[in-house]
Amino acid sequence: MKFAKHIANLARFKMGAVTPSCGPMKVQWELTYNCNLRCLHCQIWQIPAEENAKNTLALDQQKKIVDDLAANDVGHISFSGGEMFLQKSVFDLIAHAKSRGMKVGGNSNAYLISEEVAAKIANCGLDMLYVSLDGDNAATHDHIRGVEGAFDRALAGVANVKKAKPEIKVFFNLTVNSKNVEQLTGVANVAREAGASGITIEMTNTFDKYSPAQDLILSQDQIPILKEQIRRLFEEYGDMLPHPPGYFDEFETYLNDPESLYRYRCVAGTVSAQIHPNGDLFPCPVAFKKIGNLAEKSFGELWYSGEADDLRRDIKEGRHPICWVTCVSPLNLYLSYLTPTRWPRLLQPKTLGHILSKI
After folding, report:
1. Which H/E stretch holds residue 29?
2. How many CB atoms within 10 Å of residue 116?
3. 128-132 β-sheet, strand order
4. What is the pLDDT of residues 82-131, one digit of tens each?
5. pTM
6. Dihedral, 317, 319, 325, 326 alpha carbons, nearest 10
7. Beta strands 272-275; 280-282: pairing state
8. With contact defined as beta carbons under 8 Å apart, do 161 and 121 qualify?
9. pLDDT, tens digit, for every residue of 273-322?
10. Spatial CB neighbours of 339, under 8 Å, sequence gap ≥ 6
11. Helix or strand or coil: residue 305?
């Protein structure tokens, strides 16, 4: 029943509807802004600890929101941070979400995943884990992540998870920047050797708390390197890539002509949503306009409100900032193929399977 509701909601979205017929397919939830790394492409770690503590919901409040999301047919929750495993009660929260019939993913730097933590991950029911890997060697990854030993700890953490529960799907996630653009195939090889299910790749975002150090932005003379790495990825590691080819075609567009990406209607606020540690609900990670706060009102009240429809209308009409996270997501591209001239591109079972795994 939930699957059918989301398919119907996608159809309504494609036909131009503004008000969704059910809750989002996926909710990304930043549980805490506490982080143990010091990444060059992120500013979250600079938020003072006392501010984080003051603006982070208690476990009982988080569970109540999970119940609310489940009641509104949310199919998938993906927890992140900061670093999600710095919230000691995260395993209870994952288990609670699983008990409410949702698929649960996590985004982590894996630094804290000891054998003991891996056993808790296995026992709580986590379905998939995305581990950040920003280079194919310790020197690159540790430099970008700001902590020596981060590379080795990430690989050890993945090994611990695979040992504790081999069926958990583990993906490495690479954020492309000027320091690692020559290492995309190398990271894919590391992922293959680690037994990962695949590798997801995104561009470095430039908004708000994810604003990177300026020297991380790709230069024009690095674009040919990027294109060659992408070509080799499909040739040598195609089995590791869940993205459609068109996704990578837009990397250069994002760098040189981001405004043209408004041609894709963003799914934010209709098919996906974002929750901050204090319960603030946004359509997407850019958080350019808040829908409301889940500690004050229920998800249903906020999701189907006139204010939320106004925000979705703004997104539909291109009155929103362009980002890489949702504006150029595989789902956006896939929906754009639902036209007579582009429908052959739909015949990519791995991409479709990856998208449907979120329901």
Report:
1. strand 26-30
2. 10
3. 198-203, 169-176, 128-132, 103-108, 76-80, 26-30, 272-275, 280-282, 292-293
4. 999 999 999 999 999 999 999 999 999 999 999 999 999 999 999 999 99
5. 0.91
6. -20
7. antiparallel
8. yes
9. 999 999 999 999 888 999 999 999 999 999 999 999 999 999 999 999 98
10. none
11. coil
